[in-house]
């Protein structure tokens, strides 16, 4: 038998070139498959990294585009988003939440609620709240709008997370927020029917209602801020029609409004704003554009909840009025005095900040947001802790009036006031600083004030993982109706003389930034 006829012919080994070609082809093929699977996993998760121009396949409401974390709110909120996203992924075992041995009492007269972008915090503490506002929606479009929405949660996440929250607390009401702050790059125009675009307004309403029904929400929270005065009547028309459609479905509607304090009778006036059928009655001190569009009395007729954003009395973006607490009781009391005459108390909620600010006293260093962990870090060093905080007394005791120029020039506005809010006075990088923050003692005093006036409840801006854990101990008693009653306050008359600091703007415009302290671009404290 010849060699060619042999049943076991000799095999020739592959050349080196052929081997490398085969290896390269195999590596390329496997890499392509891995890339494809990875992209699909990212797009189907709740933390997409890229804003999509089109909804994903399977999105039950094609008018809602799924986005990465939208440019949301206050310094606190933006910083919390960064901190949360930078943490390593936890295992399934670590994510399992302990089931509490109680649930909120639905019949409590004073209810707890919170806005939040922190999913971990929502899961961990949902049993402490009667209502949760996932801060997940904004408007699609900038200077013009088409009625559609953007969500920071994917379609699948919206379904799964609503189910998960209800499993942890079957009694909680889930009322997501739609947020937009007006600034040079973002407007609230056609969505409320400006420019004769009632067709877009009606589409916007239908998109919102569809979203409520699709994901089984208990309602919707409207947070349209910083609007110019010419939008007042169109906003009211939009809100009234939206409320009608939401109520038809047996759902709730909530509205977030700018804080107002009563003006002295001698200083009340009318604002004639172009495009309105009648002048705006300025019976409040805060005469900038935002509050002029939020008519408490009108909105209360249609809303189930009116939530006053009572924070940013001392914004970090402004040089005036300098360092101070964000929501002291002396200011809250004035806000309540104004609101109670225009909003039924069972609908009236006061929104309280969970953050504070840390200011430089004698140098040009920027102010920064401060949370529980920040306060603990400062306490670990050399510092003076004050609570209550009497700024004028501190200035006299420390004999620092000459050097603390960032504070001393505003000392007059703090006269005869001792704030329940705590403060930390310390030195860092050669600069004297003061940090106002929130702890349980200050929170309890604020809650006692709100309960004295029989308000419907409070809202946190915002619920984050880095809040003082002792506040949760208090909340567990509050939602079970175990907090002792307080003596009810007498009916307050609106002041004849000016007694309060004029708050500048309740929220900052928002701007997506690549730093930890993402602040809004133009002026406010909450923004998509």
TrEMBL record:
Family: Belongs to the glycosyl hydrolase 18 family.
Chain intervals with Basic and acidic residues compositional bias: 486-517
Bias (Basic residues): 518-528
InterPro entries per UniProt: Chitinase_II/V-like_cat, Chitinase_insertion_sf, GH, Glyco_hydro18_cat, Glyco_hydro_18_chit_AS
Keyword Cell membrane: no
Naturally occurring in which organism (per UniProt): Leptospira bouyouniensis
Segments for region (Disordered): 58-91, 486-528
GO BP terms in the entry: carbohydrate metabolic process
Protein name: Hydrolase
Keyword Membrane part of the UniProt annotation: yes
Domain GH18: residue ranges: 104-481
Any GO MF annotation of the entry: chitin binding
Keyword list, A-Z: Glycosidase, Hydrolase, Membrane, Transmembrane, Transmembrane helix
TM regions (residue ranges): 20-39
């Amino acid at each position: 038998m010849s060699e060619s006829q042999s049943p076991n012919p000799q095999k020739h080994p592959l050349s080196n070139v052929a081997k490398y070609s085969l290896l390269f082809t195999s590596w390329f093929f496997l890499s392509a498959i891995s890339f494809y699977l990875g992209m699909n996993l990212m797009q189907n998760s709740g933390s997409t990294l890229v804003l999509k121009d089109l909804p994903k396949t399977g999105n039950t409401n094609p008018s809602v585009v799924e986005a990465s974390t939208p440019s949301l709110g206050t310094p606190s909120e933006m910083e919390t988003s960064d901190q949360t996203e930078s943490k390593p992924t936890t295992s399934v075992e670590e994510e399992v939440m302990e089931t509490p041995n109680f649930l909120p009492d639905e019949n409590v007269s004073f209810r707890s609620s919170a806005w939040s972008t922190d999913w971990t915090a929502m899961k961990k503490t949902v049993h402490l709240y009667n209502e949760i506002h996932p801060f997940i929606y904004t408007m699609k479009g900038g200077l013009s709008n088409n009625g559609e929405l953007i969500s920071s949660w994917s379609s699948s996440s919206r379904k799964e997370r609503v189910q998960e929250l209800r499993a942890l607390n079957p009694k909680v009401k889930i009322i997501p927020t739609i947020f937009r702050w007006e600034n040079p790059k973002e407007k609230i125009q056609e969505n409320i029917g400006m420019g004769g675009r009632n067709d877009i307004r009606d589409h916007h309403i239908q998109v919102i209602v569809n979203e409520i029904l699709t994901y089984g929400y208990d309602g919707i929270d409207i947070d349209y801020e910083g609007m110019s005065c010419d939008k007042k009547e169109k906003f009211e028309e939009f809100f009234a029609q939206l409320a009608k459609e939401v109520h038809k479905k047996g759902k709730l509607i909530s509205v977030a409004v700018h804080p107002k304090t009563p003006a002295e009778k001698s200083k009340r006036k009318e604002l004639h704003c172009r495009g309105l059928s009648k002048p705006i009655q300025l019976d409040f001190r805060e005469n900038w554009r935002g509050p002029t569009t939020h008519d408490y009395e009108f909105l209360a007729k249609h809303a189930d909840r009116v939530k006053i954003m009572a924070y940013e009395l001392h914004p970090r973006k402004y040089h005036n009025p300098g360092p101070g607490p964000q929501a002291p009781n002396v200011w809250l009391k004035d806000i309540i005095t104004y609101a109670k005459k225009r909003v039924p108390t069972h609908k009236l909620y006061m929104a309280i900040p969970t953050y504070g600010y840390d200011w430089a006293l004698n140098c040009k260093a920027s102010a920064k947001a401060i949370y529980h962990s920040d306060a603990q870090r400062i306490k670990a060093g050399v510092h003076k802790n004050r609570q209550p905080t009497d700024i004028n007394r501190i200035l006299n005791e420390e004999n620092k009036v000459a050097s603390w120029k960032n504070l001393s020039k505003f000392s007059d506005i703090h006269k005869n006031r001792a704030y329940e809010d705590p403060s930390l006075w310390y030195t860092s990088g050669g600069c004297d600083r003061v940090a106002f923050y929130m702890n349980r003692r200050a929170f309890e005093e604020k809650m006692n004030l709100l309960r004295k006036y029989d308000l419907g409840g409070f809202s946190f801006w915002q619920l984050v993982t880095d809040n003082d854990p002792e506040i949760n101990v208090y909340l567990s008693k509050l939602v079970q109706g175990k907090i002792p009653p307080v003596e009810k306050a007498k009916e307050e008359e609106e002041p004849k003389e000016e007694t309060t600091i004029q708050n500048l703007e309740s929220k900052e415009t928002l701007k997506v930034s690549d730093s930890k302290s993402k602040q809004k671009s133009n002026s406010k404290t909450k923004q998509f």
